[in-house]
Design brief:
The protein has seven helices and no strands. It is mostly helical. Helix 2 packs antiparallel against helix 3 and helix 6 runs antiparallel to helix 7. It comes from Fusobacterium nucleatum CTI-6. This is J domain-containing protein.
Length: about 140
C-alpha cells in the first residue's frame, strides 16, 4: 500500500487540516452515539462507520510519522516523532522510542512500499546520529 496522501499535500498545514477534520469526525460520532450506544447498536451501520473512522485515524497517525520522517527537518520532526530530551537521557528510552517508530515504518508492516523503505533508512540514520552523540 503506497501512502498517496504525501503526494496530495502541498505543505504541513494541509496535513494538519486533514488530520483535524478526521479527529472532529471521530468526536462527533462519539458525542452522538457514545460508548454505550455504540456497544448497543452492534450490528448497525453506525458502528461500522465509527470503526472506519477509528481505522482512518490509525492510518493517518501512521501517515503523520511517514510525513515527519520524509518531509520535515528538526525540530519539527523530533517533536512529531516524540523525540525529546527525556528520551535522550536514557539508552533504554531511546531503544523503546526507536522500536515504536520502526514498528510503524518497517517495510514488512507496509507491504514493502518504497516509501517505507525510505522511512526506515531515515529512522536508522537518525538512530545512528543519536548513538554517535551518546558516546
Amino acid at each position: 500500500m503506497e501512502y498517496n496522501i504525501l503526494k496530495e499535500l502541498k505543505n504541513f498545514q494541509d496535513f494538519k487540516k486533514k488530520y483535524k477534520n478526521l479527529k472532529n469526525a471521530k468526536n462527533i460520532i462519539e458525542q452522538i452515539f457514545g460508548d454505550s450506544a455504540i456497544k448497543f447498536i452492534n450490528f448497525n451501520r453506525w458502528e461500522k462507520c465509527y470503526n472506519d473512522v477509528q481505522e482512518l485515524i490509525k492510518l493517518l497517525d501512521r501517515q503523520f510519522i511517514f510525513f515527519a520522517l520524509l518531509e520535515l527537518d528538526n525540530p519539527y520532526r523530533a517533536k512529531i516523532l516524540g523525540l525529546n530530551d527525556k528520551i535522550l537521557e536514557s539508552k533504554k528510552e531511546i531503544k523503546k522510542w526507536y522500536r515504536r517508530i520502526v514498528s510503524v515504518v518497517h517495510p514488512d508492516h507496509n507491504f514493502n512500499s518504497k516509501i517505507s523503505e525510505e522511512a526506515i533508512k531515515k529512522i536508522n540514520s537518525i538512530k545512528k546520529e543519536i548513538d554517535y552523540y551518546e558516546e
